[in-house]
Amino acid sequence: MAIHNRNSLLVALSLLLLITFSNVSKIYGAKLRPSECKPRCSYRCSATSHKKPCMFFCLKCCGTCLCVPPGTYGNKGTCPCYNNWKTKEGRPKCP
Predict the structure, then answer these.
(1) For a tag on the chain, would you pick the N or C end, based on fewer CB atoms within 10 A?
(2) Taking the domains of the chain in order of start, what are their residue ranges?
(3) Is the pTM higher than 0.70?
(4) Are 54 and 73 in contact (CB under 8 A)?
(5) Which region is the signal sequence (predicted)?
(6) What's the rounded Cα separation, in Å, for the pair 41 and 59?
(7) Which residues touch 30 (CB under 8 Å, ≥6 apart)?
C-alpha cells in the first residue's frame, strides 16, 4: 500500500513539474499555436480602454509572430518579432 501511495505522489509531482516548465516557456517568448493567440491577447489588452483596436492588432501580430509578451504592458523584448514590427510612421504596430 505504501508503494502505491509513493508512486501516486511521484506521478503527481512529475505532472506538476511538467506544467510549471511548460508555462515558463510560454512566458519567455516560446512559439504559440494560433489557437493560443486569442486568450493571450485578451489578457494583454485587458487593462486598456481601447480594447477593440488592441485586440485587432494583437491578434494580427500574434498570428504573424506566434508570440505575445507577458503582462498587460511592456515586456516586448521577450518577443522580438512583436517588438520590431512598426507602422509606416515608425511607431510600434503591436500593443
Answers:
(1) N
(2) 2-84
(3) no
(4) no
(5) 1-29
(6) 6
(7) 67
**Which residue type is seen at 91?**
R
The pLDDT, as a whole number, for residue 26 is: 46
pLDDT digits (tens, 9 = 90+) for 13-65: 776 655 555 544 444 456 888 999 999 999 999 999 999 999 999 999 999 99
**Residue 46 cell numbers, joined:** 485587458
> Would you state the cell numbers that stand for residue 79, as one nine-digit string?
518577443
DSSP string computed for 5-21: HHHHHHHHHHHHHHHHH
* Distance from C-alpha of 37 to C-alpha of 54, rounded to nearest angstrom: 13
> What's the pLDDT at 3?
59
Three-state SS for 45-87 is: CCCCCCHHHHHHHHHHHHHHHCCCCCCCCCCHHHCHHHHHCEC
Q: Are 85 and 60 in contact (CB under 8 A)?
A: no
